[in-house]
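From the shared-data thread, chain only:
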Amino acid sequence: MDEYRIEDHPDLRDAGWARDAVRRAEREARVRRLRTLPRLPRRRFWGGLAIVVAAVALAWAVFASQPGSEPGSGSPAERRPVDLSEPFAGTAAAAWAEGEAGLVAPEPATVGGFTAEQVADAYARVRQAVVAARLDPRVVRDHDLEPFFGLFAPDLAESLRVLFDGRNDGEAALVVTRVDRGARLADVPPRARGEMVAEVGPQGELVVRTDYTFAYAFAPERPEDVRGPLDVVALSRFQVRYAVRDGDPGVAGLWADSSLGTFHSIGCSAAKRGFLAPAFSEPGLPPGLDFDLGSPSSPVDGCPD
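Structure, as tokens:
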């Protein structure tokens, strides 16, 4: 009987197969290494410590129409006029600050054993990450993710590239906002409001919790079909926990440990693919009601399953 040796397997003689196998092994090794780091409580967990976004659907939240109305049936008399030169008028976002002006860090102070200077540095890093994820046109409009990846610890940045390999776009929406290729932003800055706060994390690290809501105005191809301001203004709210860690060169730096997101007055089809589009991109959806910051983080689901 001829002796069989594993190295004689035809796959192992295929240079392409072997190269891919090595790459898979290297990626799996990175996953195992990251999973040995201290793990924080999970609600929505992405990239940072496990390279996995929790397999829980985002809260797609196009609010239901008023009682008695049918989706897409609003008559001209029921429509609310929209000034496309001031698309936020008539919405809560009209009073919010424009763009980065809406991301104001509190006055830094000592937190646990961390000095005010360390807290100020953490606030600056986190603010830069939020700007990149939600406001930087290179990321939001052009889908160039390098300005975002470069802000994080090397191990996390490498893990995020795996998340954005095109197979996890729905989960990746928790990490950055990317406008759908079929939608066009209006020529006005997004609006933003919210807060960040520093605290000591469960492993003794410096943590910054953020809770920001963003409003994006879109330019409709057929203005006559717009039913009201919430047809052209899409809103998203993200509660993200960041941490500043020390350690070896791969671990040291900024991490994002968890992210919870809700969306309002959006195009559901684009959202389920991980991209942002306005409600007018799907005329069959009910007209949106204005966004209430005091509402629960997971409001009524208005998107079909």
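The radius of gyration is 22 Å.
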